[in-house]
Amino acid sequence: MAYWDPLPSVRAAESGPLPAPDGGTWLPAPEHRGTWWNARPGRWAERDWRNVPGPFYGAGTDTCWTGRLIAPMHVLYDDEWGAEFVYRQPRDSAQALRLLGAVAQDPMAGYACDGDGHWTPDLVRDWWRERGRVREWAAALDGKWSVSDREEEREAAGGAREYVAYIEGGLAEHLRHYLFWLSEGRPANPGELLPPLRRGPDPASRQLVGAEWPGRAGRATPPGS
Predict the structure, then answer these.
(1) What's 194's DSSP letter?
(2) For 200, phi and psi rounded to 5 degrees?
(3) pTM, whole model, 2 decimals?
(4) Mean pLDDT by 10-residue block, N- to C-terminus, for the chain (225 residues)?
């Protein structure tokens, strides 16, 4: 599946009713709309290292644990302070609306969706190379919270398991499409070669990525890439 840009859907939805933690909807006051466009300078530098590459990320959110009440497919909590971060980027308008609803609940303005202006192909590849650290953390969190006495932690353990499965499953292909988006400014067309995730030896994976990325000259994706 080609990269899907969530930002047009976010802009269209930000002034309308947003999903609420109780399952209903709410309408943010005009002065509070749009704070997820990174109103706080330096937020990118403060982002949580567990955020998956993409436009949305958390950086010093509140610790009220409302994010997974609205967007459990996208939001997870850290185990140091209980802050929120994004472990899966939205891939359609319904998912974008759910994540935006979670973002808009944060009174600390700790979310942003300007990641496209900061991520570079090299930064994405660096994150992928170090993904073992994220996977190890998520697996340990699942082991700890899945047997917790707190219902909220047991529920969040499911998100940690999903993150591990995502890292081991579809994330690589999604990030290759995101690399194309960052490099070309558009989604890849069917049959176009996707850029590789590796720069040199990768001790965490022997994934076949096909031929080297030729930039705008690529046209066909070799089998197994």
Answers:
(1) P
(2) 80, -170
(3) 0.87
(4) 93 89 88 64 90 96 95 97 97 96 88 94 98 98 98 98 98 98 97 90 40 41 34
